[in-house]
Design a protein that fits this description.
single chain, 324 residues, alpha+beta, two-stranded antiparallel sheet
């Protein structure tokens, strides 16, 4: 019997099974070359990044940068003390284009981006106080203490859409101010908001809070029908030279549900803004006295809104995050 060679330096004939292994290795090597060529030039993703986009660390860095930019801008436009500004990110509407984009949803998540300047200084509220009147009436209605008669519904509609005073003033004359002040306190807003014989007072931060409760379906706006009714009225309110004008200039198709207030040289606007892709934010701008370059208060509000929206919701930000 012929002995099988065992010396690794033996140069005898290669067995049949050896030829099969060598052939397989050649094929695998060729396939590997083709795969490598197919992926040549494509970015390499790190293990923690995965296919879903930028890392949480990259998102957090960009959020911090945006907040710092906002804060610096707000401090600039409020330097003379005539303006108060507050911004709060609301995230994307459910099932919207923005909600389905992983990077966008992470970057603009609810409450992650906030900035404010001169927001806790009491100011004349003008007609923005009517947001608190509406909230208080909803609260009373839920307790069975206030009926939505046809006259009451018409009165609240005109109070929001046309900013008429009769309905709110008649209610306060009849029911007093204590309940409204208690409601404002429960909302963690500035109090006393209402003092007999004086103009109602509030703060930019207080208006931001009441809008947050409205946007996030919190009491007293936790009943869907009432909440949608009020938002619908705010979308239709007729004084649209402030936040709505600025948001439209920044991005056509942007929608705003807001409540304005104007009294003498006071011009205020408090709104919930929805971009065409479904991204949402709250912006409140309050002004009094002469504005830069002799502008009206609402023109100044529109310019601030346009600048803020272009800064925060610049599409290039998402592109940069996804490409890095």
């Amino acid at each position: 019997m012929r002995r099988r060679p065992t010396n690794k330096h033996n140069r005898g004939p290669v067995p049949h099974w050896g030829l099969m292994i060598i052939s397989a290795m050649v094929v695998l090597g060729f396939v590997g070359i083709l795969v490598g060529q197919a992926h040549q030039g494509q970015p390499t993703q790190s293990a923690d990044q995965g296919p879903s986009g930028p890392t949480p660390q990259a998102i957090a860095r960009r959020q911090d940068r945006l907040e710092n930019q906002l804060q610096r801008y707000f401090e600039t436009v409020t330097t003379d003390g005539t303006t108060g500004v507050s911004f709060y990110s609301l995230g994307a509407k459910p099932h919207s284009v923005a909600a389905k984009n992983t990077t966008t949803a992470q970057l603009y998540q609810t409450g992650r981006l906030t900035a404010a300047a001169n927001a806790h200084t009491p100011i004349d509220s003008a007609s923005t106080y009517k947001l608190f009147v509406a909230g208080y009436l909803f609260s009373l209605h839920h307790q069975g203490r206030y009926p939505w008669t046809a006259a009451n519904r018409e009165g609240l509609t005109r109070m929001i859409v046309y900013s008429e005073n009769d309905f709110a003033e008649d209610f306060m004359d009849t029911n007093g101010l204590a309940g409204l002040n208690q409601f404002a306190h429960q909302q963690q807003a500035f109090t006393p908001m209402f003092i007999a014989g004086e103009t109602a007072r509030t703060t930019t931060a207080s208006l931001t809070l009441i809008l947050r409760h409205l946007a996030q379906q919190k009491k007293p706006f936790n009943h869907a029908a009432d909440r949608q009714w009020l938002l619908g009225l705010m979308h239709k309110q007729v004084y649209r030279h402030g936040i709505p004008a600025g948001a439209q200039a920044a991005k056509p198709g942007t929608r705003v549900a807001d409540k304005v207030g104007f009294l003498g040289d006071t011009n205020n606007d408090a709104g919930i803004v929805t971009l065409p892709n479904g991204e949402q934010y709250i912006l409140v701008v309050t002004t009094h006295g002469p504005q830069p370059d002799g502008e009206t208060g609402f023109k100044h509000i529109a310019q601030i809104t346009q600048h803020v929206q272009k800064m925060v919701y610049n599409p290039q930000i998402i592109q940069d995050l996804n490409n890095n």
